[in-house]
Structure of Ribosomal RNA small subunit methyltransferase G:
Amino acid sequence: MTGSFVEKMKAKMAELGIDLSQIQMEQFFAYYEMLVETNKVMNLTAITEEGEVVTKHFCDSLCLIKMYPEIVKTVSVIDVGTGAGFPGIPLKIAFPGIRLTLLDSLNKRVKFLDQVCRELGLENVSCIHGRAEDVGRMKEHREAYDLAVSRAVANMASLSEYCLPFVKAGGSFIPYKSGEIREELEQGRKAVEILGGEIQDVVHFELPGGDGARSLVRIRKIRPVSAKYPRKAGLPGKEPLGR
């Protein structure tokens, strides 16, 4: 583990009020090394420089603490469209008490995530290959989670249809968004209502080091989702609800 990595991580974590143990720091570094190495043969991320991974992947993922301090307690979390494991794996390393499900539609990414979890010794993590529209209809996953998160690139209406079916009544869905989101929020509000949710809070912030505007949106699930949703694979993206 390099000294520069430790320094960068400590500085960023201090800004978030997160204190990592030596073991957690080593897990983050091992994850970084696996990410960069695997990226040579599989397209996981365009961001591979050490400082950028620390800020734009690890720190960005952990900014959830600003919106959802309950993450420090044991909660069940599903990361929908997790890709290379963001934000789910950084959340699991920093808050090991969570029960985590990582969902992605590309099997080779899911195999990479399985390997990461084994090598890092992460427990209570399930890596699932499937589309959100299909898995969200399965009895063992439907309305089974305290929290759904997603950093996937999709509009708020489509993301809500992918993610809200996983959340228990009383739970939350928190999408990670970048840039200006006011218009997207307004366009997505109707879909959120149709799917049994309400927009509770929005936090806007800059990533530490001024690396970009980010927003977290807390959507509270107030009632079960109609059995009509999610619609069949492909439809939530092509025909967003409420439009």
Summary: The chain has a mean pLDDT of 94. Strands lie at 76-80, 99-104, 125-129, 145-150, 167-178, 197-206, 213-221. DSSP finds nine helices and seven strands in the chain.
